[in-house]
Amino acid sequence: MTTNSNLEQKRHTLAHLLAAAVLDLYPEAKNTIGPAIDNGFYYDFDLASPISDKDLPKIEARMRELLPDWSHFVSEEVSAAKAKSHYETNPYKQELIDEIVERGEPLTLYTAGDFTDLCRGGHVEAPVTDLDPAGFKLDRVAGAYWRGNETNKMLTRIYGLAFDNQVDLEYYLAIREEAEKRDHKKLGKELGLFIFSDLVGSGLPLWTVKGTLIRELLNDYVWELRQAKNFGRVTIPHITKKDLYETSGHWSKFADELFRITTREGHEFAMKPMNCPHHTQIYAAEQRSYRDLPQRYAETTMVYRDEQSGELAGLSRVRSITQDDAHVFCRENQIEAEINTIWDIIDTFYRTFGFDLQVRFSRHNPAEFDKYLGTPAIWAKAEDKLKTVITDRYGQNFIDGVGEAAMYGPKIDFMAKDALGRILQVATIQLDFNMPERFDLTCINEQGQKEQIVMIHCAIMGSIERFMSTLIEHYAGAFPLWLSPVQVAILPVAEAHDKAASDIAHQLQAEGIRVEALYSGETLGKRLRAVKMQKVPYFIVMGDKEIESGKLTIENRQGDKEELTPKELSEKLHTAINQKLA
């Protein structure tokens, strides 16, 4: 896909063109707001009568008819009175005008062709020549509350896609079509990995036997890598007194996201939204010497956040989040070594899945310092130390993530590119000077004095739910052999072959291979389709030839076949499983 530095301006311009077309076709409509977004643009309208996706071709055609008259934009800075006069019958624009005046900003009207809109600018200079008429497409109609507030009126939002040219648009549409086929919500249901229940509640996934198996295999792998680096497992409860989060700072910053519990005695507790405050108390339970550091605690456990219903999205955003969480308590002179140890784990883990990782240095935004704990001096020290680690190991080619820091410290966020080329955030390492100070976490140093320590927060998968959604879509449900819930399917040709198939299945199961035998109650063709739908890595058709020869013809998902004895098959599978191969 090609890129263009003014793509956002093109998308902004097309939002204006969309509004012009809608007002031309539906004169009673009231236009509100229309920004550029990641893949195009949208505009919200108050319409007298509803429209649907079926109306989009007509609106899109009108946009292309208007475009030749849009030679350029004319801007005019106007008074509030003139602006309000222009939008005399549009209460939405009137509200926006009042807000702009209150902020002390200028009011500007932009005109192209016969259409004028309230806008701060940011368009292409000459729409008729700068826009490719084949580079945009109206996408869908949705509902949206005015200003995103559900107490306001529901408006009609029209989404459009926009790229530099038709080639880029068609490429995006092809990728999106493939992404829809890989949608983890669709595949998760087809593969029987997880479900959602209205009785349990939205955002609370229930994991089946197959889905739980994959989760546990992933978690076991993370623990294997951590154990080799001398992490120790800890366990904490799922609730806490309010006091813990008041001390940590989470209560004041995240009170609205907490699930709260009031006991019969009137005490206020919360379901834990994160694990770090609990882990501080394990460290604080005894006075530590500098010789005891670093202390490395790891735990895989659920946390709970009261996400808004409209923000929930399959496994990508849930209310019960399983974190493969770990915290390192160390001295300042151990920071670099400990972060590099964690970084080694992350590199090994993601290399297994073929992900290329990018690094984002997620730091605080000084203009919004009230979002963070601590002082500017503490943040400067933490960010300097973290940036040194990044540049020493990764170089200068990192993504600068201003405003992406956690509330207590800067982060190294690892970004992975999946099979569709999408960039997704996965692992994270966070450096924290603030929480140790708030909890008075210290060690006794070489001089026999108390020395404040630091915390390093790290999650390899981030959350198992989100990582599972990433893996399902990355592999299109065709998991590598070591992760597949069923590794080999055996299909007897007829009832006479059922016993031989059962014997082979039991033999492989005894050797630790996950096997499913699909016996002859259904036609062979139907059973083969079921195996392929379930994306089982290998299958064996058991007939007279296999029984007589003692050799099995094993076929993989790509259609490659190989004749092996049961012993040779077991050795082949174990080699691939142990090496975590496909």
From TrEMBL:
Cofactor(s) listed in the protein's UniProt record = Zn(2+)
User: Mainly localized where?
Assistant: cytoplasm
Q: Which Gene3D superfamilies match?
A: 3.30.54.20, Anticodon-binding domain, Bira Bifunctional Protein, Domain 2, Threonyl-trna Synthetase, Chain A, domain 2
Task: Describe cofactor binding as the record notes it.
Answer: Binds 1 zinc ion per subunit.
Q: Is the keyword Membrane in the record?
A: no
Keywords per UniProt: Aminoacyl-tRNA synthetase, ATP-binding, Cytoplasm, Ligase, Metal-binding, Nucleotide-binding, Protein biosynthesis, RNA-binding, tRNA-binding, Zinc
Alphabetically, the GO molecular function entries are: ATP binding; metal ion binding; threonine-tRNA ligase activity; tRNA binding
| Entry binding sites for Zn(2+) | C276, H327, H457
Known partners and oligomeric status: Homodimer.
UniProt lists the family membership as follows: Belongs to the class-II aminoacyl-tRNA synthetase family.
Protein name stated in the entry: Threonine--tRNA ligase
* Organism field: Candidatus Vogelbacteria bacterium RIFOXYD1_FULL_46_19
Q: What is the lineage of its organism?
A: Bacteria, Candidatus Vogeliibacteriota
Q: Name the gene for this chain.
A: thrS
